[in-house]
Write a structure and sequence with these properties.
Layout: E1 8-12, H1 15-28, E2 35-40, H2 56-63, H3 68-74, E3 78-80, E4 82-86, E5 94-98, H4 111-120, H5 132-138, H6 150-154, E6 159-161, H7 164-177, E7 181-184, E8 187-192, E9 199-204, E10 208-211, E11 214-217, E12 234-236, E13 245-251, E14 261-266, E15 269-275, E16 280-286, H8 293-302, E17 313-316, E18 320-322, E19 326-327, E20 330-332, E21 338-339, H9 347-360, H10 369-395, H11 403-410, H12 415-427, H13 440-449, H14 466-486, H15 490-497
Parallel strand pairs: 1-2, 1-11, 2-7, 4-14, 11-20
Antiparallel strand pairs: 3-6, 4-5, 8-9, 9-10, 12-18, 13-16, 13-17, 14-15, 15-16, 18-21, 19-20
Length: 510
């Protein structure tokens, strides 16, 4: 069996992960004569709270040939320019993590080095004054960048807020139109070859059986294939990321949706606010060692913008990932591969990365040790890089008003993060390693926003005279302010290009 060519791919589980994988494989591998079958049971619910995304999702949709306005309309989506963090550095403080870059480099030197030098000269303006995303977000503006819009608008980066269930349904239609077969059924047993241990088929209820060559595990936290068949255990990161529970609820929207996500720190975790066209998604992520389920729900319901339109949905999770993402002839994607709390909206992105790497390393035969080893290395790196960025949010806090915040403020951190922070804090030096996700803009936004920003600047940034420095940065501020002012409102853009039809709250899922 080991040398058999891959002719049949079987995806176990639907939801966002399953249908993203099915859509991508329908686009990439079915033209090569490889069949794709997805098995899911309507009796098994999906988590379905991941509604906020980051900019790489636009590339995924584009690669599938999906029209953006159609996608936004059919998923009740809005546009997302970044994330506002409230009370994270300290109570009463807030900052914005933009998806576009800060400023323009000068003389081949990174912009933030000149910003740090200007601050040393007594100018107290923050990084947000040099960010089109920040200015547009707070003004409630949006415009999709086009090639003829110029370099300033060209810096605008964006993602989406969408209804995850509607996105899965959208991709379901896309995949089936391109040859993917869906089978309704509950997986009761995973059949393995007695000699190699490789999966041969999935036994379903009703004495049905689905055979395959390569299996994709999208069964959620259960990891029915990756853990059940291959015993790929969970590497626990909860000592660095202690939040392990969440409660989610949707509420009515009262105003036009803002083009950004809001994350508000609470007593033992944080609360998300995600505006869609038809309602607002809300959730409270927390650590049950410091807060009870009842108090978490009470806090969430007391801080909604509108009347709830769904019942609170309680979730349990552990942060970390599988020892092996790809074991034997099974690749785990989505929650079955691991989970990092949704603080920076990376859950769907990690699904996307798993799919992209599977396509790039798609094996010729059932046994693929070289491809398997590289996939596991790359996915471990992806999870580790995101982990370190999330830890920064907790470690870089001044809050001492609750036991939870005292713990995360004083906890030890991985060496990989400590070294990066030392470079950033001293003179604003930053390097991306191994294609890590978050760039200097993201690290600066969080570090500076929470009081851990650069204390000095690269001496090479002294190449400009003081007068030239002040004038250059003033020109940038003016350019961003004018560009933001000229943009249409977020709601006006949606109304013109991608307004969704009304939806019945009776059919809502969080």
């Amino acid at each position: 069996m080991k040398g058999n060519p891959i002719k049949r791919v079987v995806i176990a589980g639907g939801g966002t992960a399953g249908w993203m994988a099915a859509a991508a494989l329908a686009k990439m591998v079915t033209p090569a004569g490889i069949s794709v079958t997805l098995v899911e049971s309507e009796a098994i619910g999906t988590v379905g709270v991941g509604e906020a995304t980051i900019p790489p999702i636009t590339k995924f949709n584009t690669q599938l040939g999906i029209d953006e306005h159609t996608f936004v309309r059919e998923t009740q989506a809005t546009f997302k320019l970044g994330i506002e963090f409230v009370d994270w550095g300290g109570l009463g403080e807030r900052y914005f993590h933009p998806f576009g870059r800060y400023g323009f480099d000068l003389e081949g030197i990174e912009f933030h080095q000149f910003w740090s030098r200007l601050r040393a000269l007594g100018d107290a303006r923050g990084l947000g004054d040099y960010s089109l995303n920040t200015m547009a977000a707070y003004a409630g503006k949006f415009l999709r960048p086009e090639p003829d819009h110029g370099v300033v608008i060209g810096q605008l980066g964006y993602a989406y807020h969408f209804n995850a269930s509607l996105y899965a349904a959208f991709l379901h239609r896309y995949a089936e139109e391109r040859g993917v077969t869906r089978i309704e059924g509950r997986i009761e047993q995973v059949e393995q070859d007695s000699e190699s241990g490789l999966i041969t088929s999935l036994k379903l209820d009703g004495e049905r059986e689905v055979g395959g060559d390569l299996f994709v595990d999208c069964t959620g936290f259960r990891g029915l294939l990756i853990e059940g068949a291959f015993d790929s255990r969970h590497i626990d990161w909860s000592h660095w990321l202690p939040c392990n529970r969440a409660v989610a609820v949707a509420c009515e929207k009262r105003d036009d949706p803002l083009p950004y996500t809001r994350s508000t720190a609470r007593e033992a975790g944080w609360q998300w606010r995600i505006p869609l066209q038809h309602r607002t998604g809300n959730g409270h992520v927390y650590c049950d060692e410091y807060l009870s389920q009842e108090n978490a729900e009470e806090t969430l319901l007391a801080n909604l913008d509108g009347t709830p339109v769904s019942s609170p949905n309680h979730l349990r999770f552990r942060t970390g990932h599988r020892e092996q993402f790809w074991a034997g002839n099974c690749v785990a994607i989505g929650l079955s591969s691991g989970f990092l709390e949704p603080l920076e909206s990376t859950s769907i992105h990690l699904i996307q990365m798993g799919i992209a790497k599977l396509v790039s390393l798609f094996p010729r035969s059932v046994d693929a040790p070289i491809e398997r080893a590289e996939y596991n290395r790359l996915m471990t790196d992806d999870f580790t890089h995101v982990r370190d960025f999330l830890i920064l949010h907790y470690k870089a806090t001044k809050r001492d008003d609750a036991p939870f915040w005292n713990y995360v403020r004083n906890m030890g951190i991985p060496d990989s993060l400590a070294g990066k922070l030392e470079l950033l804090k001293s003179h604003g030096r930053f390097f991306k390693y191994d294609a890590e996700l978050f760039d200097v803009t993201s690290w600066l936004a969080v570090a500076e926003g929470q009081g851990w920003g650069p204390q000095g600047f690269n001496p090479i940034a002294s190449s400009l005279s003081d007068d030239n420095l002040k004038q250059s940065l003033a020109n940038m501020r003016n350019a961003y302010a004018k560009a933001a002012e000229a943009m249409p409102t977020h709601q006006a853009y949606i109304d013109r290009f991608c307004k969704a039809a009304p939806i019945s709250f009776a059919s809502e899922t969080v």
